[in-house]
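FAQ: What does the model actually see?

It sees only this:
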Amino acid sequence: MNALLKSTAVVATLVFALTLSAADKGKDGFKSVFNGKDFEGWAGPIDNYEVVDGAIVCKKGKGGTIYTKEEYGDFVVRLEFKVPSGGNNGLAIRYPGQGNTAYEGMCELQVLDENYDKMRGKLDPRQVHGSAYGMVAAKRGFQKPIGEWNQQEVTVKGSTIKVVLNGEVILDTDLSKVDPETYMAKSKHPGVTRKKGHFGFAGHSDPVAFRNLSIKRLD
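And it is asked to produce this:
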């Protein structure tokens, strides 16, 4: 192969690689972290979950926290979720890869049926959908009906968390300013000061589904 052909081949290869990178990352800096087919890039009890119609679904009666192999510090995550009646799950934020993310991670953001308490009993306000479990309550009333997909965006920056559900801000808080004495049941949350960790889903036996999952790093 002569020098001109070699140069052309190298340029073509670089262009192709850059095109793939741009397509994977997206124009706005978001990168897909779920391929819609399998759990490549994920860790944890993945046998307790399945992929159904391009979505991650917790198997009924199963659970545990599955998480991205990559870790994140400050980031924005966008996703869609669908909950069954009485469904319960959670978003693991800065999860260390072991333990209960609600306590060992920065927090667990609740993913919960809007009418969960009507079916399964009274809830503390810090247990409703979008809440930083046990620490800060989110606003209610913005979920779509059972069976419909909800759009959610979560921004994690330093000690702050903002949750936007279907276009409405339901949580905007700084966890460093929350008095530990006010935590639900005064439980300890040693992971609240974590600066980095995995992102994941904390299943609680219900077939909650997630799809169109992408993350943008802010650091």
